[in-house]
Design a protein that fits this description.
Layout: H1 8-13, E1 14-16, E2 22-25, H2 38-43, E3 47-49, H3 52-61
Antiparallel strand pairs: 1-2, 2-3
Length: about 60
């Protein structure tokens, strides 16, 4: 049986933490920032955990993590 391949696009977007949860970067913070409120931009900082509904598909894309 050959090795399973990791989806490289998913590997660049998601990181598996030591606890097993998966973190992702925030969207909507790259451009067109002048029309967004400072509070909104501040809350988009950092990374967050993926939603439970998406976890199964993300884990399938990252077989060795």
């Amino acid at each position: 049986m050959p090795k399973m391949k990791t989806k490289r696009s998913a590997a660049k977007r998601f990181t598996v933490r030591a606890s097993g949860s998966i973190k992702r970067g925030q969207a909507f913070k790259r451009h067109l920032l002048t029309k967004k409120k400072t509070k909104n931009k501040r809350h988009l900082r950092g990374s967050v955990e993926i939603h439970a509904a998406d976890e199964k598909s993300v884990r399938r894309m990252l077989p060795y993590s």
